[in-house]
Write a structure and sequence with these properties.
Layout (H helix, E strand, L loop, with lengths): L2 H16 L11 H4 L1 H12 L10 H16 L7 H28 L2 H21 L23 H4 L1 H25 L2 H28 L5 E9 L14 H15 L4 E5 L5 E5 L11 H9 L4 E11 L11 E3 L4 E12 L6 E4 L13 H4 L25 E2 L5 E6 L6 H9 L2 E8 L8 H17 L2 E6 L5 E3 L5 E4 L6 E9 L5 H5 L2 H24 L2
Parallel strand pairs: 1-2, 2-4, 3-4, 9-10, 10-11
Antiparallel strand pairs: 1-14, 4-6, 5-6, 6-7, 8-9, 11-12, 12-13
């Protein structure tokens, strides 16, 4: 193939990968999206006597760069430099995975090379859930977030099962097309086509059957979700707007609560910053909500806020602690969720999965000297503090609920840890106004549907500017608001107490593939060294 043909095929893969995230085509297009790039890789494999293995790397980077930038360009609204870093680095990581797959094919037989692609890619996606530069946004299995009827089996595998499914489909389809193009072997191509259809359609059929027959379980709880619609750029953190914002929350609350209401859920940073060391029950922002709690004894109010905790003298400070020179003490800032009810103590959860570049500096031990340049989307600078382990809120009735903040809703295994600790409902609080009217907020909403399927937990999602929603255990959006509209909605969610296979075992596919990848890389290293002896 000529160079321009290789470029066109690479570009085609990048565009095809992007389309399902942009909601322009059905997700099943992903089963062929990588085939053009596989033909590019195969070209360099067939021409390995002419081209060094590194020749394939720029093409892989180009394809994945296009996928990343077409899908995640909206990050630039809030963090232009952050968007560039995320897009470039993530594309580079993806390209390196494919380059390693290409090297495996050159060093070993082709069939082992195909296996290595499955292992390396799934290990990479698993790493992106668990290291300090986590960015699992473009996990391949997320592509089915708006077609949950096809992936009900995520309750067993999580999204990594979807990634395996998509990769396997692409590899099988590619093999069939390659035989047809290079060898004109129609019978073999027909066998691969039949295998492709089996691999793609069988999980879909089983999923649709599960979707149609699934019956929600658990006691029903009435939930009110608030959407105050405060512009995060011009009003949310502007001085002099505090009373108006609080009154909006109270007005929306009063419009829907009754004596039967169990929960009111407001968005991320719904309240103004507060100090945890103080008696929060006397905080002027919370007093009006306590008045509602006293009137409705079963009521639990869940709201987001930026909080500060001052370290006591002699207390061990965290890595993210800042020094207050005027007061001569250290403190941490958090993106938090508060639950208040008729019980004596306010429950607080601190966001644990922080966004690199906007809420934390990855590998801060080594890059602390530039940490002050981190721009947090809550109006502060520098890395935020975080909570080490998941912790649920307990309601007046004893029901446990999982408080999830924004980016955390992308992490299936992490949310599974809340559910493993008996969370019966999932509450997601977010402020999607940062991304304006872009695919960003729609993608994050769709990911919440996958969390419902994986855990079989109903989800209440409160978004400052929308879209807020109530999602059932099948992943269906039962009720939702319009984007960029002051609104509130009310509905019943069932609190399931059963534990899914995925909640119990987490991303086991990723762990297995990480182990296999280590073995493959060791074998590649040995083979490479042997060739040079």
């Amino acid at each position: 193939m000529k160079k321009y043909q290789l470029v066109l095929l690479t570009v085609l893969s990048g565009v095809l990968l992007s389309l399902p995230w942009l909601e322009l085509v059905p997700a099943w297009l992903l089963f062929g999206a990588l085939v053009p790039l596989l033909f590019v890789e195969d070209h360099f494999f067939r021409q390995r006597a002419t081209f060094p293995d590194v020749s394939f790397l720029p093409y892989a980077f180009l394809g994945f760069f296009l996928w990343n930038v077409l899908t995640c360009w909206w990050i630039a609204y809030a963090a232009p430099f952050g968007m560039v870093v995320i897009v470039v680095l993530n594309a580079l990581f993806m390209a390196v995975v494919w380059w390693l797959f290409h090297k495996m094919k050159r060093s070993f037989r082709s069939s082992l090379g195909q296996i290595s692609l499955l292992a390396f890619w799934l290990a990479f996606e698993y790493l992106h859930f668990n290291w300090d530069m986590e960015w699992p946004w473009l996990t391949l299995g997320n592509g089915f977030a708006n077609q949950v009827e096809f992936v009900q089996w995520y309750e067993y595998s999580g999204v990594l099962g979807g990634s395996l499914w998509i990769l396997a489909g692409n590899l099988i389809l590619f093999q069939g097309l390659k035989i047809l193009v290079h060898e004109h072997h129609w019978r073999a191509a027909a066998i691969y086509t039949s295998l492709f259809l089996l691999v793609v359609l069988l999980p879909m059929v089983l999923s649709i059957k599960r979707y149609a027959n699934y019956i929600e379980t658990g006691d029903a709880y009435e939930v009110v979700v608030l959407q105050p619609n405060i512009d995060p750029y011009h009003e949310k953190f502007a001085a002099g707007t505090e009373d108006r914002q609080l009154n909006t929350l109270l007005r929306l609350t009063d419009s829907l609560i009754t004596s039967a209401t169990d929960f009111v859920v407001g968005p991320e940073t719904a309240l103004q910053p507060m100090v945890e060391n103080e008696d929060l029950r006397r905080n002027p922002q919370l007093l009006p909500f306590y008045e509602r709690v006293e009137s409705y004894l079963a009521l639990n109010v869940v709201l987001g806020a930026n909080t500060r905790r001052n370290f006591e003298k002699g207390e061990r400070i965290s890595e993210t602690a800042r020094k207050d020179s005027e007061q001569n003490h250290y403190y941490d800032l958090y993106n938090s969720v508060l639950l208040l009810n008729g019980q004596s103590q306010i429950q607080i959860y601190h966001k644990s999965k922080l966004v690199s570049g906007t809420e934390k500096m990855p590998f801060s031990r080594y890059f602390s000297f530039i940490e002050k340049y981190i721009v947090d989307l809550g109006g502060t600078t520098g890395s935020l503090g975080k909570q080490d382990k998941p912790s649920n809120f307990s309601s007046v009735s004893g029901l446990k609920v999982a408080p999830i903040i924004c980016f955390e809703s992308v992490f299936g295994q992490y949310i599974g840890e809340f559910v493993a600790q008996d969370a019966g409902l999932i509450f997601i609080l977010t402020n999607d106004g940062w991304w304006k009217d872009s695919p960003g907020y729609r993608q994050l909403l769709a990911y919440a549907r996958l969390r419902a399927v994986e855990t079989r937990r109903s989800v209440a999602r409160s978004a400052n500017t929308g879209v807020s929603a109530l999602i059932n255990q099948r992943g269906d959006i039962e009720k939702s608001t319009e984007w960029w509209a002051e609104s509130a909605l009310k509905g019943e969610l069932k609190a399931n107490q059963e534990i899914t296979f995925y909640v119990q075992y987490g991303d086991f596919i990723g762990r297995v593939c990480a182990f296999v990848s280590v073995l493959l890389l060791l074998s590649l290293l040995v083979r490479t060294k042997t060739k040079h002896i």
